Amino acid sequence: MILATNLGFILLSLGALLTLARLIQGPSLADRVVATDLLLTLLVMGIAVLSARTGESTYLIVMVIVAMVGFFGTAMVARFIERRGA
Amino acid sequence: MSVTEVIAAVLIVAGCALGLLGGLGIYRLPDVFGRMHAATKPPTLGLVLVAIGAILRVNALSGATLLVLVILLQFLTAPVGAHMVARSAYESGDQLDDQTVIDELSQADPPEMYP
Amino acid sequence: MMTRVLMVVWLSSVWILLWGDLSPGNALAGIVLATALVVLFPPGPTQNGGAHPVSVIRLGLWFVKALVIANLSVARAVVRPRIQVDQGIVAVPLRACSPLVTAFVANAITLTPGTLTVDVRPQAFGKIGTEPAAGHLQIRNGVQVPPVLYVHCLRTGDPAQVRADGLELEEYVVKAFGSPEDRRAILQPAPVWPREANPTGAEGSPT
């Protein structure tokens, strides 16, 4: 299980690194919103992997909150882009 | 090493690989809409796999219920978020890539005509 | 009434899931809170025809299969050394009108192979009457107009095939959740598209 979760963390980190590159590069605001959304989803997956590794469920409430905040953030910024244009 | 542990390990590695696939797609695809494909589908399935793997491992019932809740949330919110961003990106004039072959939305009536 | 009961069941199960505690006291607190919420903020009118269990299961299985295929197709497109896509936005006119079906189809399209819903517009706007509709987006002259989904495809191929797939999905969804009007609507032939092919502008005539 330690091996599997280590491998999982490595894969997730690589994915997050590529997403971060897109977040920095842009070019448009919508690109960055999509990248942020994906970054938060990867974070949620990371927390789930962590709980599988330790068998602890203490962090899982954080996972639910991050998932919800990610959605609300995306929705908000989407409304904002629509009104402002970018 | 029990059977459930092996299944959980396989699910977690597969789910994380899908997470990496999402990252790869968002980095490599040519325009916002293509990137949105990569940012929606693989992480959704990936999160489901990882969460099922974690359910098999977590020791408390409350942990398992939270993981179920997060799967439901992801299925509800991922497509809605993608739809909102895609729509606003299109309306704010985000460019489609050169490899786009057809755009029937450009032939639709402009949004000002709707109530 | 039925929707309110369902709302209470859903809200209290979320409450219990969040607390992670199935004790009678906690469940009672959840039910009391959910009932208070539903009484204070009553849900608007809906037009569901109720769910049909067998069709829901069939829809679920189809959905899981489509989600897996979606990931394989994105994987193939992304992992290639040279990115090679023929993207496009295709209009998919639907036949059923109810908002629930529209929302479900739009979300399911986003999660199925190579497609992503970009926008939803009412069908044939500007053809029948040019005056803006009053009230709801999908109601014109008191008649519900079926929507058009604008779908972005990673691999477009044949637009007609994309439309046919959308209608197949719609049929699954309507059989699972559709109202009686939706069930009648999907018996009609597929709407004619593009619009120019039908100069009268009466395509997808609402039932």
Write structural notes for this entry:
The complex is a heterotrimer of chains A (86), B (115) and C (207). By secondary structure, chain A is mostly helical. Chain A has one domain (2-84): Helix Hairpins, CATH 1.10.287. Chain A contains three helices and no strands. In chain A, helix 2 (29-54) runs antiparallel to helix 3 (60-84). The relative contact order of chain A is 0.14. Helices cover 72% and strands 2% of the residues of chain B. The radius of gyration of chain B is 19 Å and the shape is elongated. Chain B is mainly α. The longest helix of chain B is centred in the middle third of the chain and has 31 residues, at 61-91. Chain B has one domain (3-93). Chain B is built from three helices and one strand; from the N terminus they run H-H-H-E. Chain B has helices spanning 3-28, 32-57, 61-91; one strand at 102-103. In chain B, helix 1 packs antiparallel against helix 2 (32-57) and helix 2 (32-57) packs antiparallel against helix 3 (61-91). With 207 residues, chain C is an alpha+beta fold. Chain C folds into two domains: 2-40; 53-197, no CATH class. Chain C is 48% helix and 12% strand. Chain C has six helices and five strands, in the order αααβαββββαα. Chain C has helices at residues 2-19, 24-40, 53-79, 99-111, 159-177, 180-185; strands at residues 88-93, 115-122, 139-140, 143-144, 147-153. In chain C, the strands form two sheets. A three-stranded antiparallel sheet of chain C has the order 1-5-2, covered by helices on one side. A two-stranded antiparallel ribbon of chain C has the order 3-4. In chain C, helix 1 (2-19) crosses helix 2, helix 3 (53-79) packs antiparallel against helix 5 and helix 4 (99-111) crosses helix 5. Chain C is globular, with a radius of gyration of 20 Å. The model of chain C is unreliable at 125-141 and 197-207 (pLDDT under 50). At the A-B interface, helix 1, helix 2 and helix 3 of A face helix 1, helix 2 and helix 3 of B.
